[in-house]
Amino acid sequence: MKLLYVDKAGLSTLTRAQMLADQHKLDVEPVTTYEAFTEKYAKGVYHAVIIDFTVEAGQKALELIDRIDPKQRVITISATESYSEPHGCTYCAGHHNRRRLKEPFPLSDLAGLIRDFDFVGCVYYREENS
Fold this sequence. Notes:
Layout (H helix, E strand, L loop, with lengths): L1 E5 L4 H14 L2 E5 L2 H10 L4 E5 L3 H13 L4 E6 L10 H7 L1 E6 L4 H10 L14
Parallel strand pairs: 1-2, 1-3, 3-4, 4-5
């Protein structure tokens, strides 16, 4: 499975991408800028895009995906309590194809979500966030 991974620059991003490739046999392309994201996304077809939506490149990447392909599989990650969709969970579930993981999480949870994406809902879905 080919993945695009948008996160901040640093060793943790590269390490996570490499571990997904080595331990879970996934083809992961990490990017740290919006420009790199748009270049890769325009050229490739990705099983899923993993995005830390709290970094500038991640927020812009989500906005672009929402405009051109809102049903693209997206896994949002962050350490914050905020949500990637300001209109709430019900809106997100009806208009996007997103799941969320809150950091910290075991790498096996991310790999499992990538593998089983179409068979699981967002574990953070709450109607009161609608």
